Amino acid sequence: MQQAIIGFHLDDEQHWIAELACGHMQHVRHTPPWQNRPWVMTEQGRQEKLGMTLDCKACDTLFK
């Protein structure tokens, strides 16, 4: 289920987590070559992604 990003915070290991409108959270790591998200490394990049949607696996599980 697609959910909008409403914020970001760092976890204990300093990886970025997207806070979703549904209340769930999802890691948005930049770990090339597996995950290529250079935008997450800057404040401006993260701000530009506010409102973007991600597929929330937790919602997919809840609303099957």
Task: Please explain how this structure is put together.
The protein has 64 residues and is α+β, with helices and mostly antiparallel strands. The chain has one domain (2-62). Helix content is 20%, strand content 31%. The protein has helices at 43-49, 57-62; strands at residues 2-10, 16-20, 25-27, 53-55. A four-stranded antiparallel sheet has the order 3-2-1-4.
Record keyword descriptors for this entry:
64 residues, alpha+beta, 4-stranded antiparallel beta sheet, globular
Summarize the model shown.
This protein is an alpha+beta fold. The chain is built from two helices and four strands.
Largest sheet, spatial ordering of strands = 3-2-1-4
Count of strand segments: 4
- List the helices and strands in order: EEEHEH
| Cα-to-Cα separation, first versus last residue | 10 Å
Could you say how many structural domains there are in total? 1
Radius of gyration: 12 Å
Are there runs of 5+ residues with pLDDT below 50, and where?
none
* Largest sheet descriptor: 4 strands, antiparallel
Determine the strand fraction and express it as a percent band. Answer: 25-35%
Shape: globular
How many helical elements?
2
| Helix share, percent | 10-25%
- The chain-level structural class is alpha+beta
Mean of residue pLDDT? 94
